[in-house]
Amino acid sequence: MTIEINNLYKKFGKNQVLKGVDLNIGKGHIYAVLGPNGSGKTTLIKSILGMVIPDKGDISILEKSIKKDWRYRKQINYLPQIANFPPNIKVKELLHMIKDLRNSPSEEETLIALFGLEPFLSKKLSTLSGGTKQKVNIVLTFMFDSPLIILDEPTTGLDPKALICLKGLILNEKAKGKTILITSHIMQFVEEMADEVLYLLEGEIYFKGTIGQLMEQTGQHDFEHAIAALTTTESHAENS
Amino acid sequence: MRTDTQHNAFMLVCILLVLTQTVMAKTWTVCTSCEHSSIKGTIERAEAHDTLLVQKGTYREYEILVDKPLYIKGIGYPIVDGEKKGEIFQVRSDHVTLDGLFIINVGVSYTKDNAAIRVIQSKDFLIQNMVLEQLFFGIYLEKSSHGKVYHNRIIGEAVDEYNSGNGIQLWYSSDIEVRKNHVQGTRDGIYLEFSDQITITGNTSMDNLRYGLHFMFSNHDVYTHNTFENNGAGVAVMFSKFITMKNNTFRKNWGTAAYGMLLKEINDAEISNNTFEENTIGINIEGSNRIDYTDNDFIGNGWAIRVIGACYTNTFKGNNFLYNSFDISYNSKLNDNIFESNYWSSYTGYDLDRNGIGDVPYRPVKLFSYVVNRTPETIVLLRSLFMDIIDFSERVSPVFTPDNLQDAQPLMKIRP
Amino acid sequence: MLKILKYSFYDLIRSRWSYVYFLFYLTLGFVLLFLNNDVSKAVITLMNVIIVLIPLIGTIFGVMYYYNSREFTELLLAQPIKRSSIFMGQYFGVAGSLTLSLVLGLGIPFVLYGLLRSNAIFDFSLLLVTGAFLTFIFVGLSFVIAISNENKIKGFGYAVLLWLFLAVVYDGLFLMSLIVFEEYPLDTFSLVATMLNPIDLSRILILLKLDISALLGYTGAIFKKFFGTDLGFLVSMAVLFLWTVLPILGLRHKAKRKDF
């Protein structure tokens, strides 16, 4: 198992966000984490990354508990939702800095070429447009070779060409046998990329399964409608 | 003028002394291995106006009575050791000169004020070039006049006030010149009680337990060009009239009750061209009237001037107030004193007409000084932002401090 | 941690605000020295500035930096780096660059003026050391406040309130208690109350070198005995150091438990 989550609880103030999440994620698939606003998607991802500290429950990454550990994050590439970088440093300095911090081999050159970032390398991050920042963000995420990749809204601000490049990258990583977790509001993108869907509702895993299983369960023929229908039907997640 | 005539008279006396000596006086040589081996014995044998030359050596003698006009001179600083048995020299005659002796070990007593040299009811004496150590009282002038105490060195080792004496003491004496002496480590460096027309010039008085210079009930005295440093409480002038204080330096008198100068019940005095530097309080004034403070420098004192109790018609003019924590402190709301044309380093006004005088009056009394007068411990808040804000508001609209206390013509440039 | 420190530091010394801060001190130093021509007076004026401004600037800078780099912090949190290292690195980066601006900004005019030949060198270095301590203390306190408050405006408000309290209100309360309890011996109380506020402590430390006549002259025995000696000086420095360490420990503690 790449990720193993047992009985995870998390409360922010009075708001119980995660109510006993149990989850097993295997190797080499693309998982889409979906759910309405406030369902606990981000909290779940941040718990996996160690940014949120759970009240109760265990998380294991690659068969190792992450409690009071930080080295496991070397096995994760994370693309944050809003990329707000230090404004006064240049793109190449940021790349250099992250490489320096992670201290692992990287292959940023091909990625830079892929997204056409060469002209921006010597520019300060504060001068870049949102889309360019997102491209830098993607380069930072994919330049390392890690078994687990987590992408939070990866399509934000991307032009169609860059979007195609991104899809290619994701599929390429999947082909290398990596586990990929994606959250996105673009259902078309999810339908295209995801092997399995995790649907969170009110702090619990409401549905887990392939897109086919989802259609079958909800009796819909359209992915977007199937998702919408999930919230109205009574059935619970079944492990596949 | 008075000092000049005094000086001339003195010169005359000296010349006369020399003349009489050369004409008819005999010279006695005293040394430890000579025929005359004791000072006391030789004095008994000598006639009036004779000269005693005391050769180098140690003379263990005390209670040496000089009862006739004599010139006693030490050659190469002979030591007169009183062995702590009592007083050492006692002068009871006019025209006595003591010169160049090294006197040590005066007897300490709790009932008698033993001195290294006591002059009683005598005139025209001269005490010069003496070195006094291990003493109780140093030079004690009692009901004497027209004498001179010149260029002596008095080094005490006083620790407690109750068993130490004063360096130079004048009691009911008059017309005496105290000049170029160095006094340290005694109780009061120089002490005057009921003594008038005294001139104190060019002395250094330092590290004394109590006061460097102390006046009590003494009038018409002048002290100039003296240095008073690191004394327990500084210089005290009390219950006296017509004292002239000029060109003196008061430095580093630190402590809970330490002043550069303490004035108590002083009237009609003149204080000018003095320097008060790094004292806890530059001048502490209590019940003193009609005093002119002109052209003095107050530099880096805690309080430059602290006024306690009723003080009327004093004038402060042309003084420099530089970097004192407090320039002036008052403990009442009344002010009858004049501040005019002084330079204040903390003045922040402007001079648009460029006449060298600030266009806005300066208020030298801070509210904080008023607070500190009331509760001394609050001094720990010195220079805190809170106190600055409070002081500022008080300066804008005075509530606690006298509102007519201001220098309407503050100088823009420091008086040279 | 050193890597984060390095990057935060580089980031900051390239920012506009560091230059403004640096130029402010540079101008201040030059104006004081070359318009006054008196090193001792310049040192006194500088003390007033340092006691008031350094804590304020440290506080505001600390809070601003923390909130501005929040997203970047999140980026770092997902990297294989220890949590406390991230915050320690940022903290030392901010405090370090502010201290550098202070030391260079004031140091250059003073050295040009010929400080090294004047006897104010000790006063001056004490001024800088105290300034550095105050920077570290107040950046630390502002980081603790910022990390405890998600809401930017709230955090900013609390930080400025804290500064206001320590710089002004505290002394007002201090003064009031001294006056109310003037019948009692207040030496120990004054001593403790001074120690409990880093601004007061720094002020007293500097004052002892400048206004020693007023301060030593008028306070009671314990206070004098304490601050007048080398031991008192060392203890004061130790307390300042403690004041520096406490917010750092608080920051580590908070960082360990915080959710992002």
UniProtKB/TrEMBL annotation, chain A:
Q: Which GO terms describe its molecular function?
A: ATP binding; ATP hydrolysis activity
PROSITE patterns in UniProt: ABC_TRANSPORTER_2
Sorted keywords for this record are: ATP-binding, Nucleotide-binding, Transport
Signal peptide extent: none
What SMART domains does UniProt report for this protein, alphabetically? AAA (SM00382)
- SUPFAM superfamilies linked to this entry: P-loop containing nucleoside triphosphate hydrolases
Q: Per its UniProt record, what Pfam families does this chain match? A: ABC_tran (PF00005)
Source organism's superkingdom? Bacteria
> Which InterPro entries does this UniProt record tie to the protein?
AAA+_ATPase (IPR003593), ABC_transporter-like_ATP-bd (IPR003439), ABC_Transporter_VariousFunc (IPR051782), P-loop_NTPase (IPR027417)
**ABC transporter domain span:** 3-227
Q: What is this protein called?
A: Cu-processing system ATP-binding protein
Q: Which organism is this protein's natural source?
A: Flagellimonas taeanensis
From TrEMBL, chain C:
Q: Which UniProt keywords apply?
A: Membrane, Transmembrane, Transmembrane helix
Q: Does the keyword Transmembrane helix apply?
A: yes
Keyword check for Nucleus, yes or no. Answer: no
The residues that cross the membrane are: 20-36, 42-67, 88-112, 124-147, 159-181, 231-251
Name of this chain's protein: ABC transporter permease
Organism listed in the record: Flagellimonas abyssi
Taxonomic lineage is:
Bacteria, Pseudomonadati, Bacteroidota, Flavobacteriia, Flavobacteriales
